[in-house]
Amino acid sequence: MKMVRHRKVVSLKTDKDASSSSGCSESSIGSRTFKFLSVWKTGVGCVCFLIAVYISTLGYLETRVNTPFDDDKVVKDTGLQVADRYWGTYRPGVYLGLKSREPRSPVFGIMWYELAAATHKGIRHWCDQNDNLDTYGWLRHDGVTFGEQLIVDKPHNITTSFIKTPGGEHGGHWTARINVTTKANAKVPFVLIWYAALDESLGPAAPHSRLWYEDGSILGHTPQLHNFRINLIPQQGKLLHTSYSEANAPGLHLLKEKLYSLLKIERHSMFGKLAVLGADDELHIKEKDINFVPIQMLVETPFCVDIVYTTEDLSTPPLKGEKYARVLEEKKTEFDSEFESKFRLDEKGYPPEDVAIARAALSNMIGGIGYFFGAGRVQSQYTREPVPYWRAPLYTGVPSRSFFPRGFLWDEGFHGLLIGRWSPDIQMDIAAHWMDLINVEGWIPREQILGAEALARVPKEFVVQSNAAANPPMLLIQLAHFVKIRPELFVTGSRHRATLDRMFSRLQAWYQWFQTTQKGDEPTSYRWRGREDDGLQLNPKTLTSGLDDYPRASHPSDIERHVDLRCWMYAAADAMMTIADLLQRDSSKYEATKDQLGDEDLLNELHWSTHTQTYADYGLHTDGVKLVRQQPKNPSEPAKVVRSVLVPPQPRLVTSAFGYVSLFPMLLKVLKPDSDKLGKILEDLDKPELLWSPYGLRSLSKSAPLYMKRNTEHDPPYWRGQIWVPINYLALSSLKYYANAGGPHAARAAELNGRLRDNVVRNILNQYKRTGYLFEQYSAEDGKGSGCKPFNGWTALVVLIMADEY
User: Fold this and answer.
1) Which of 78, 99, 247, 726 could form a disulfide with 794 if both were Cys (CB 3.0 to 4.6 A apart)?
2) What is the Cα–Cα distance from 107 to 90, expressed in whole angstroms?
């Protein structure tokens, strides 16, 4: 019994103990499981949160590249609010093109061809170097009321002019005159086309805007202009035949191609077969609206026609006939007088022919101003694909009507130096439009490709703009220079001061963008971004610097230091200090940066070579490179020219590339007037084996390994020896500054300034007399113009050089 009880008791105790132990175990496991699940859920939640934050941040960063700067627009008055500049020759890429400063303005223009030329596509429309015209360009253009242009397309001389008649609420009237003469006054058949077109790049024009032909005239309507009419009124010569078409063109960039498709062959009693404009079948087949109305006139030269645009709300009669001729002569006299009052070239003793060239240089700068509207393509490191910038207008000069008929950021800074002397109103309006293109990061795309006509003329590889790409802040420097030389325009309460005040936050953002994104590894050093080594280039380009193929370190790396950019930042800090002081803003940080970047000891530590006694870039460099033809592995593939590195690169100063970059501490007046380094630069400046030539300063020393060397098989030298006017302008400006500043080098600077000025002016004028053009660059060997023509952008600074105004 006892044993049984005992066993039962034991048994009960064991059961009880076992049960208790099992409960504890399950409870512990459950607790641990709960904790694990809790931690797991928390971890997963954190990871999800971090992913969400990352995605959200990435999405935010993706949008910054095309997010506008968050502040009031600088441009306040647009369109008809600026009535005196509403109409103009704002299509610089065509030989004559008028439009208004509205995004959806109708456009007007001319085309022409010799009677036998239509069959081999000899129609002139876009300014094109391949047309090989003897010369073309504005002889006078005031940017506001009138212009006169000469086009020589042998054997024809085509003189175009226009005059505006202001008034009314819809832009007023204007008249364009086209006068065609032939050598020896021969009576030659000639085909002239006047057209009107609607820009549908923003969407269909109809039903709000319309064009049509009626009784020999072009009629139209837009919401801004209301009803308008264009009459073609012959003034001299025989009009042998007229034809027209009402058509639908696929875009403004294809007007000439559309015109070709409209030409039909018709028998003519005098000429046999004659190409005339016929109906556009696409209007009926595809049920499209009319957006293109060309009128073709077969004329016998000499021939003159007035193209008279009128708007219904202005009762003032439009100019035509003898009255137009009389007013045109008055305008020309007024222009010549105004030109002399601003630049005083007659007073300085220049002969009439040279003064006429200077007037043409200014007029082509002014006549090259365009009005564009659209959205560029941009990309950042956070966007997989290019994205559109926001749609915006741009009122700007262009470097070249034939090759670069669009806006370029650093070019516009140089343009402004001349435009501002002629018309402060125009220049401040241009600067305001550029500053409205700044994004929330403080970045401005350096090349503006806005609208179908602009886009059609840019190679695909240059369309997309990277937000890592800078361009020299010349526009900022030009604005500050304007403040210094014309302080009366910026007094308290003035219109231009108010404009500058609205600009200031954007200028601050742009300046800070440079300081943040273009800084180098070493304190007070800077590095241009965007250099890419593709293995094909002899020396990878630095397009962002504006100097393109100028030799830098042979192997791009993060250790690079670019002396020109450091000097640009010195000038930018000085500019910000000037503008801040004018606007009574705090300028202390800009002054501190200017003082730091102006510290010659710091500059010399980073960029001065004691061996060559020159300033230079720093980076991973070797001169042991050359282009070689590489045989392909696959015999069916063509041989490729690539770069061969014969000597490994080393971190070093790039002293072998003595040229424009080496001069920047002088060019931008970083060096003090008593600097011994300035003395050395001036000592070497007129050495013909280096940069001096009878025609100006060459861009790269004749002793440099890459002097006039191709960069790739298909890429000829660009900034590797040729003479460029903007850098010669900066050199002359700095030489005059150091000549007037006193000190041990003043006499040397003055002597060099006089000789260099004579060389540059004489050559540009001589080449214009020889060819009828200003050029993009000039040869240091014989002075001949090269690159694209006409180049009426910064080469027109010759006007200021002649006037000795900097």
Assistant:
1) 726
2) 9
Respond yes or no: is residue 353 known to be catalytic: no
Interval 700-714: pLDDT, tens: 999 999 999 999 999
The residues with which 595 forms a beta bridge, in sequence order, are none
Q: Helix/strand/coil (H, E, C) string of 674-729?
A: CCHHHHHHHHHHCCCCCCCCCCCCECECCCCCCCCCCCECCECCCCCCCECHHHHH
Euclidean distance between the first and the last CA atom of the chain, given in angstroms as a whole number:
127
- Give me the torsion for CA of 772, 775, 779, 782, rounded to 10°: 10
> Tell me, what's the pLDDT at 55?
65
Q: Is 98 helix (H, G, I), strand (E, B) or coil?
A: strand
Specify the residue for token string 């490729």.
640
Q: Specify the DSSP class assigned to residue 439.
A: B
How crowded is the C-beta side of 668, counted as CA atoms within 13 Å?
Answer: 27
Structural domains of the chain sorted by starting position, each given as residue range(s) with its CATH number in brackets: 79-321 (2.70.98.110)
Q: Partners of 404 in the beta sheet?
A: 400
Catalytic choice (102, 354, 412, 776):
776
More confident residue, 489 or 117: 489
3-state helix, strand, coil in the chain (%, to 5): 40, 25, 35
The count of residues in the chain is 806
pLDDT of residue 764: 99
Active-site residue (options: 128, 548, 599, 686): 548
453 annotated active-site: no
What sign does the dihedral 581-583-589-590 (CA atoms) show?
negative
CB atoms within 10 A of CB 558: 9
Q: How far is CA 556 from its chain centroid?
A: 26
Average pLDDT over residues 354-381: 97
Closest CA to 152 of 112, 195, 187, 202: 112
Distances (CA, A) of 344 to 207, 425, 589, 760, 763: 53, 21, 40, 19, 20
Alpha-carbon dihedral of residues 110, 111, 114, 115, nearest 10 degrees? -100
Residue 62 to residue 51: CA distance in whole angstroms: 16
* Amino acid occupying residue 772: G
C-alpha torsion sign, points 42, 46, 51, 52: positive
Contact assessment for residue 803 and residue 425, using Cβ atoms and an 8 Å cutoff: no
Do 343 and 410 form a contact (C-beta atoms < 8 A)?
no
